[in-house]
Amino acid sequence: MAQNKFRGLGVALITPFQTDGSIDFDALDRLVEYQIKGRVDFLCIMGTTAETPTLSREEKRLLKERLVERVAGRVPLLMGCGGNNTAAILDELQNEDWKGIDGVLSVCPYYNKPSQEGLYQHFAAIAKASPVPVVLYNVPGRTGVNMTAETTLRLAREFENIVAIKEASGNITQMDDIIKNKPQHFDVISGDDGITFPLITLGAVGVISVIGNALPAEFSRMVRLALRGEYSSSLTIHHKFTELFKLLFVDGNPAGVKAMLSEMGMIQNVLRLPLVPTRLTTMEKISQIVKELGY
């Protein structure tokens, strides 16, 4: 039976760009070392936060090779592999090199809005084809379709290599239903920084985080404390970041966290269209928080 390696703080790694729009591999190397020094438990690469829809196939290949080489097995790597064309995903799973990758994160199909049966059949096909463990990703705010607790649990019970779900539906009742009724080998991971603390108190095992890009040491401490049942200390850190949770998403993701990382001197504040940097008013507020945090 596949074991879920993706517990604790996982960071949805950004893709740093140079001012000419090309990938900044030196900044990427620095960011990886910063994450590992900050005691992250795993890295999620080439997800939404990485601006993956704007990367070419060759850029994705180069990014994956660089990250596998740089991380060198120090933490598990969860790689985005999803879309709304099931056949194309199966082709990628069967024909790409998955050496150094510990699991795939596969998002619910977007735009074509499948039924619950369609979602089940889609992920069943992925589970059968995948050479590595599968983490489902439910984010209806982006995909236009919500995968119900019933469908998630059906997949979890039928496929031992489906080891977890990144739940970003915002529906605490739905998430609690999955946690309450899931098989033992299957875990729930928060897909939203702001509800990570309450979700862990319900039985989630961690988070795939955006804010962790900028504050891995602080956020990993909050997660570790919560997982140990030290809720009071964890809640103090959670409340410290309440305003920042909102600020990082008010102008879209990863615009907020890229603004913060640029204020910290770690990357250039460059995104690829159709995404653009945060508004000046948001940037000023983020800059003030960075100063208050001592960076």
Task: Give an overview in words.
The longest helix is centred in the N-terminal third of the chain and has 15 residues, at 57-71. The chain is an alpha/beta fold. It contains 13 helices and 8 strands. Strands 7-6-5-4-3-2-1-8 form an 8-stranded parallel β-sheet. Helix 1 (25-37) runs parallel beside helix 2 (57-71), helix 6 (149-158) packs parallel to helix 7 (172-181) and helix 9 (216-227) runs antiparallel to helix 10 (231-240). It has a single domain (8-230), classed as Alpha-Beta Barrel (TIM Barrel). The model has no long low-confidence stretch (mean pLDDT 97). The protein is globular, with a radius of gyration of 18 Å. The protein has helices at 25-37, 57-71, 86-95, 116-129, 140-143, 149-158, 172-181, 196-202, 216-227, 231-240, 242-247, 255-263, 280-293, and strands at 8-12, 42-45, 77-80, 103-107, 134-138, 162-167, 187-190, 206-209.
- Count of extended strands: 8
Our measurement of the CA-to-CA distance between the termini, rounded to an integer number of angstroms, reads 44 Å
Strand order of the largest sheet: 7-6-5-4-3-2-1-8
CATH-defined fold name: TIM Barrel
Number of domain modules: 1
Question: Which strand-content bin applies to the residues?
Answer: 5-15%
Number of helices: 13
What portion of residues is helical?
A: 40-55%
Give the radius of gyration.
Answer: 18 Å
* CATH level-four homologous superfamily name: Aldolase class I
What is the level-2 CATH architecture name?
Alpha-Beta Barrel
For the largest beta-sheet, the strand count, sense and barrel status come to:
8 strands, parallel
